[in-house]
Amino acid sequence: MQTFQYTKAASIDKALGAASGAKFIAGGTTLVDLMKLSVEKPSGLVDINLLPLDKVETLPNGGLRIGAMVRNSDLAWNAEVQKNYAVLSQALLSGASPQLRNMATTGGNLLQRTRCVYFREPSAGTPGGYGCNKRTPGSGCAAMEGFNRMHAVLGTSDKCIATHPSDMCVAMAALEATIQTEGPKGKRTIAFADFHKVPGDTPHLENALEPGELVTYVDLPKPVEGAKSVYLKLRDRASYEFALASCAVVAKVEGGRIRYARVAMGGVGTKPWRSHEAEAALMGKAANAETFRHAAEAALKDAKPHGENAFKVELAKRCVVRTLKMATA
Ligand code: SF4
Q1: 118, 121, 306: which to mutate for ligand 1, most atoms within 8 A of CB?
Q2: In CATH, which superfamily holds the domain spanning 228-328?
């Protein structure tokens, strides 16, 4: 780990003022690991743990405002979240371990970086003679010919096939959250769908934040009356494991027909993967197994497997079907 300057900020203004060339640190559950591995080498860290962004509050429009510093545990067990946004609570509780959830923050979870071994462990080898375009732009993608069982099948490019690792973000995609930020150019509101980027030719650019811009809040819209929401995560072991495939569904059924549907997937996309195709296949249709399978086929129709991860395509379809069944029961 290289040396860095440490600053503790007592206000958002002070944090923004100190941010030039530095990184914000909150729970540190991703950043410190990556600094130890010399993947991240910031010249400075601005500690934002004192910022007054640790509340969950009801918005005048009936939605929910979540401070960026709200810990994953506190958010998961928040009574309002459990009652009206169950999919978010379930997603958070399916991630990491209790100790990590006690440290990790809402803002940090949004910015989780991939678990691709070639990104995190430079000693993992260079299959095909390649490096990692995300870590060192232009060095190639070792995962294309290497270990890629955990990698993405949606949103990939010939430069990167890394999976976005967050469970929380999958739920937020289905809930149509918006992200509030503050930076050198002022405040911004970013739609959740626009926040994370697919790799394209620039896999090292992962989100819409500009240098020195800080996530301040995540807003959830007013809950859809009569809707039920569910998060299902399929993984190699029952806890402390990343998703092979996961699905978040918010659905409303009236008279046996689906009147509202939001579907997002995790473990299979290079970003939290909202499926408008699945939603279109569900709207107005009878809530039955045939409809659910049709929606799952639509959700994965553009999937591109790479060697070891071909099994994810069918696994993700079954995950979508099962989640829809649970959300519409
Ligand atoms: Fe790097 Fe992405 Fe390739 Fe992994 S998949 S080696 S993160 S470029």
Answers
A1: 118
A2: CO dehydrogenase flavoprotein, C-terminal domain (3.30.390.50)
